[in-house]
């Protein structure tokens, strides 16, 4: 008997106040699972998973009891592994979808993306009727207040949600265990490492005095402590230094132009 791969995980954090719903494709062509996360906090769903996970998301929403019901959903950015389930939340369950001003046009337009990403996340991103929100989000019991923090770099429209009293930061892909920059003009995802650095600096300064900060990432678990942010910034600083050192060395060896750039990227 063939044992199906696990595609859904549910984890509770912070004395069950935060529910993390994780989904990954069971495509046999995938070498290992690529996880994406949605977080449910007092009726607020942060992100909506991938298009390929729609059936699993539908079952998850139906399984929620009356104390867990989703009142609204906020989409941090429009990449398919975060906005892919928004269509069914709106159309089938009538759950209002909110996002930032920069993301609204992209959400309403929908998106198709390269085949290699469809292997991980499923078919195209369907258009979503969403509303702009640019003020703090109060959850349904008024227990939590999330402030919005623009964190460009991974995506121009990415917004993190910060709950200062609880020392929570829901950052989606703004903080990664290791940055895997996507280079090349032909890619429709263009990460900007300088903007990522600036955004990390903003995140570090925003919750000043919050030494027990919990950083909720997308598919990479919960990171603890503000020192994680400085560590990420140091990684980028070190990368910056290495690039310039390699550039000078290669120039002395006679390399120039596109060939020099290709060698640096490969290193």
Give keywords:
267 residues; alpha/beta; Metallo-beta-lactamase, Chain A; seven-stranded mixed beta sheet; six-stranded mixed beta sheet; 8 helices; 32% helix; 20% strand; globular
Per-chain topology:
Blueprint: E1 8-13, E2 18-23, E3 36-41, E4 44-46, H1 54-63, E5 72-74, H2 80-83, H3 86-91, E6 97-99, H4 101-109, H5 115-121, E7 131-132, E8 137-138, E9 145-150, E10 159-163, E11 168-172, H6 193-205, E12 214-217, E13 222-224, H7 227-252, H8 257-266
Parallel strand pairs: 4-5, 5-6, 6-7, 11-12
Antiparallel strand pairs: 1-2, 2-3, 3-4, 8-9, 9-10, 10-11, 12-13
Helix pairs in contact: 6-7
Find the count of extended strands (DSSP E, 2+ residues): 13
| The CATH topology | Metallo-beta-lactamase, Chain A
Oligomeric state: single chain
Uncertain runs: none
User: CATH homologous superfamily name?
Assistant: Ribonuclease Z/Hydroxyacylglutathione hydrolase-like
| Total helical elements | 8
Number of domains: 1
SSE arrangement, N to C: EEEEHEHHEHHEEEEEHEEHH
Q: Proportion of β residues?
A: 15-25%
CATH class value: Alpha Beta
Structural class computed from helices and strand pairing: alpha/beta
Strand order of the largest sheet: 1-2-3-4-5-6-7
| CATH architecture term | 4-Layer Sandwich
């Amino acid at each position: 008997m063939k044992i199906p791969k696990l595609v859904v995980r549910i984890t509770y954090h912070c004395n069950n106040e935060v529910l993390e719903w994780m989904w990954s494709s069971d495509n046999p062509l995938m070498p290992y699972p690529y996880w994406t996360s949605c977080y449910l906090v007092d009726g607020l769903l942060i992100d909506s998973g991938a298009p390929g996970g729609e059936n699993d998301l539908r079952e998850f929403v139906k399984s929620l009891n009356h104390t867990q019901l989703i009142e609204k959903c906020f989409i941090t950015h429009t990449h398919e592994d975060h906005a892919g389930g928004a269509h069914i939340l709106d159309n089938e369950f009538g759950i209002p979808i909110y996002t930032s001003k920069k993301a609204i046009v992209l959400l309403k337009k929908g998106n198709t993306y390269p085949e290699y990403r469809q292997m991980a996340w499923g078919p195209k991103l369907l258009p979503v009727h969403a509303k702009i929100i640019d003020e703090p989000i109060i959850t349904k019991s008024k227990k939590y207040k999330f402030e919005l923090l623009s964190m460009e770099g991974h995506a121009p429209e990415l917004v993190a949600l910060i709950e200062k009293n609880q020392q929570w930061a829901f950052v989606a892909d703004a903080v990664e265990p290791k940055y895997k920059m996507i280079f090349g003009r032909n890619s429709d995802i263009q990460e900007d490492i300088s903007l990522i650095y600036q955004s990390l600096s903003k995140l570090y300064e925003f919750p000043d005095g919050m030494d027990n900060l919990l950083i909720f990432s997308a598919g990479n678990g919960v990171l603890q402590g503000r020192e994680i942010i400085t560590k990420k910034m140091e990684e980028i600083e070190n990368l910056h230094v290495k690039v310039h050192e390699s550039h000078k060395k290669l120039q002395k060896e006679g390399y120039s132009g596109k060939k020099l750039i290709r060698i640096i990227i490969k290193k």
